[in-house]
Amino acid sequence: MELFDLTEKLCLADGTSSDEADVTELILSLLPSDVKAYVDPLGNIIAEKKGRATPKNKVMLAAHQDEVGFIVTYITSEGYLRFDAVGGINPEVVIGRTVHFKNGIRGVIGTKPIHHQDTKERKRQPEIKELLIDIGATDEENARQYVTQGDTAYFSPGWQEMGEGYLKAKALDDRLGCAMLIDLLNSELPYDVTCVFTVQEEIGTKGAITSAFTVKPDFAIVIETTTACDFAGNEGDKRVCELGRGCVASYMDRGAIYDKELYRLAFERAKENNIPVQTKTVVAGGNDSRSIQVSTGGVRTIALSVPCRYLHSPACMIKKSDVIATNQLMRIMYEELCSI
């Protein structure tokens, strides 16, 4: 299956942190028969494939299965659902959005209409806890026939190709990384490799902690998406990274300072192979690297990311050329680290 077909299939699946079972089942179904894969007690998929040679160093590639979403916390007497976010979600991107539950129930996220808000309310951004999901229930009893506390709601999928080489969908963070690992495992490989599809990244990189202790790698490559702010009103360093400028190799984020030699090596190999590469212009965000690099006796780690606009929203946007660049650099770095 082609890389972007894999990505679409994965983005249409639902799986917030600790509720990744459907995504896990899908990923396992997409792995070839020569991959030895198992699911650990937390839910991580640890997949191993033999290559043509045994590597000098054990390399772990990681991408996370989970996406941001919502969890029901309370049902009002009128049948509306109070909820909280699973992962970091800006309330501004959810009002008026359609969401769905795994049982097929759909709802709309709403708040007090603007023409009923006073001047102060209009100027203030509402908090998630002030919003409601309306599933069309008549009252609490009716709502409880379909939904209860602890149920998870997801942004409704909206896979769409846009403009010249752009894609828009929910859950590109990080089903895109998962697609790249699946694509790798369906290839003939020069060296043995271990790919980990982690869980619970969005609520504290928990799956990365346990899986890295299991795998005990010498090197790790984390495949991710990262926030691009290259839109009107942002200039210079405020753009962070840009769509169309290739893979993002990180030097530091809010959770990790990356191995300096690996950071340098990524740029060198990208230049040698005419692969577009960039870095971020601010220290922001974070990913599984923060947990992997401090596991066991320490793991030398690099993150390679696809720049993504509108991250953690129902309309994440990426450019295909950046995905191709990231996929190419990932494969080159994996081969290099196996024998470095």
Characterise the protein shown here.
With 340 residues, the protein is of the alpha+beta class. The protein folds into two domains: 3-67 and 170-339, 3-Layer(aba) Sandwich (Aminopeptidase), CATH 3.40.630.10; 70-155, Beta Barrel (Elongation Factor Tu (Ef-tu), domain 3), CATH 2.40.30. Helix content is 26%, strand content 25%. It contains nine helices and 17 strands. The protein has helices at 3-11, 21-29, 119-123, 140-143, 172-185, 206-215, 260-272, 289-292, 320-339, and strands at 35-39, 45-49, 59-64, 69-75, 81-86, 98-100, 106-110, 132-134, 152-155, 160-162, 166-169, 193-198, 219-227, 247-249, 277-278, 300-308, 316-319. The strands form three sheets. An eight-stranded mixed beta sheet has the order 1-2-12-3-13-16-14-15, sandwiched between helices. A six-stranded antiparallel beta sheet has the order 5-4-9-6-7-8, with no helix packed on it. A three-stranded antiparallel beta sheet has the order 10-11-17. Helix 1 (3-11) packs across helix 5. The mean pLDDT is 92.
